[in-house]
Each structure stands twice: as C-alpha cells, then as structure tokens.
Specification:
Length: about 120
C-alpha cells in the first residue's frame, strides 16, 4: 500500500466518520441496555405480583375449604362433592287413593297478620 492510499484510507474525514458511527452505535447499545433493565424490573414486578395473587387465592381457597368442612355436618347441601339424595316418593297403601292437594295460593300482600293474644 502506498503512502497516498494509506493517507486516503485513514483521512481525517473517514476517521471522524468512523468515530461518529461508533459513538452512535455505543449510544444505541446504552439505550438498549437501559430499556432492557426497565423490562427486567417490570417482569420481576409482574412475577412478584402474580405470586402474591396466587398466594392470596390459595389462602382464600383453603379458608373456603375449611368453612365447607366445618359446615358439612350441619348443612350437607353446601358440599357440592356429595350428590343430593332424592327424596323418597311416598308409597300409597294398597287400595287407598292418595290425597290430592290444591296448589298453595300466591302470596297476597293485602293480608296482614293478626296480633297474638296474650297468653
């Protein structure tokens, strides 16, 4: 390589342009790293928040399960795991006609209860 080619390759203008290019690339990398750190912080916050929500849901589920278990003896219809036993159908005696009842009348809000007599 001749001195002229060397001077042309490493001219002040070309060296300055290369430096400007590298400075711009370095700034892009720094900006990218800042955004990456922000994204990591956001991801950690979301992960922590999700774990907190999962924990709160588990506590609520456990409390509900304990409440169901404590009420199962008193109110078995609250336990969806146990199927409801159908009510036995009445078996009429042989030769006796079952009594048919009329349907109960609809509630009438014009009727007021009578006061109780003193005992």
């Amino acid at each position: 390589m001749s001195a002229e080619e060397l001077a042309e390759t490493y001219s002040d203008r070309k060296v300055a342009r290369a430096r400007d290019f590298l400075i711009a690339r370095q700034q892009e990398v720094e900006t990218f790293n800042e955004r990456l750190e922000q994204a990591k912080a956001a991801a950690n916050e979301i992960r922590s928040w999700a774990m907190q929500v999962d924990l709160e849901e588990a506590v609520a589920r456990a409390q509900l399960d304990r409440m169901r278990a404590s009420l199962a003896d008193i109110l078995p219809e609250l336990d969806p795991a146990q199927p409801e036993a159908p009510a036995p159908e009445p078996q009429p005696d042989a030769g006796i006609e079952p009594i048919r009842t009329a349907e109960a009348p609809a509630y009438d809000d014009r009727v007021t209860p009578l006061p109780r007599a003193a005992e």
